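Example record

One chain of 445 residues, shown exactly as stored in the release files.
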Amino acid sequence: MIGRTNGASTSVKDMHIVISGAGMGGLATALALAKKGFTHIDVYETASSLGFVGAGIQLAPNMARILNRLGVWKQISSTAVVLEETSIRQGSTDEELSHVDLMYIEKTYGYPHMVGHRADLAGGIYDGCKREKAITFYFSRSVEEVLEWSPKPIFMARPRGGEPIKVECDVLLGADGVKSNIRDQILKLLNLESRVVDTEQAAYRIMLNRDQMKDDPELLKLIDSDKVIRWIGPKRHIIAYPVSNKQIYNLSTAQPDTHFAAAPSATYTTKGSKKTMLEVYGDFCPMIHRMLNMVPEGEVCEWKLRVHEPLASWVHGSTALVGDACHPTLPHLAQGAAQAIEDAAVLGEVFAKLPDLQPESINKMLKVYEAVRKERAYMLVDLAAASGKALHLGSGEAQKERDRMFKEGKTIPDKWADANVQKEIYGHDCMQVASDSFDELFSKA
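Predicted structure tokens for this chain:
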């Protein structure tokens, strides 16, 4: 069995922490714990390396605040673009329905709303992890069956192409994504059900480079802007903004899912047809068509948008779930990665206040993490779903009323652009909440 060779841990800071998964939540959790002085943090990742891919990602102030405290925001923000405004437009005509000035955000919340490349965000956190001697990465190694949950978690780790190895640790954190193996084991053990929810939505993610757009003045204006645009149409929309120092224009769509119905539950992506993509947005304006036409044939990929029913518990014994393993969300609030990073930040705070290494104390500490995070995370999951419903109305009276509200500007149906929702999201300091409430929550756990 792999574990400590020098006997039991004598110091809380020397406890053996294993994180399953090196996505945003796993990386940020490892870094947050290392920054709090924990000395033995192992990250197990099924992939052979962290070859970062992906599209654009929004870097909201609640995320930036945490990343700055973790010492990686400067690098991540160096290639990001500050959003000065957002425009909500009719997809068919490009007519502006609503305009929101975003420059107030930095004055109000201490950080601007920025957008960047997902690879730059993940890469920046990973670089921060590599600077920490406490963190060890085990690539090509998956966490499979958990044999014991307490007093110390014991699990089987399988190297790719090799025989499984038994590993013991003090705490196991499941940051293994929406298809979490650890979550499914906990649910089965507790005889609980929590289904994957089919949102009946899918997405294309498209990245166009400056060279593709440079000869089209209208498109060049888009990539040179400091603006996020949402084009909306019946039951679908496109959101777009420049990233990577304005060298890439990112488009992310959401539309009714018609291609995954026959696919097994585990399937989340499929090769798409460019012809079909153009047909789905066939009634959108010519400028949109010109951008979609730039996607090379054979490089159209469609994502299934799935979420999970709320879980009764994120914690079992000395194990807890993190990020998409416990609260996957739709992209309509642009808070998926931010909420995983909030989980990480709260874990750093509560681990730092752990009084001793007794399994009962570890379990109570993890329940404090859950108590701090659960209500907020699920509130934002619900808000994202509500925003999606508002954006994806068909043609009719409800759609006309929504567009009237956009034009009046008092209440913005797009929750992401609504100042009251922004206050709820960006004004929340999860680390401060965790620190201030720990003693009370720990005593009640």
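Notes: The mean pLDDT is 92.
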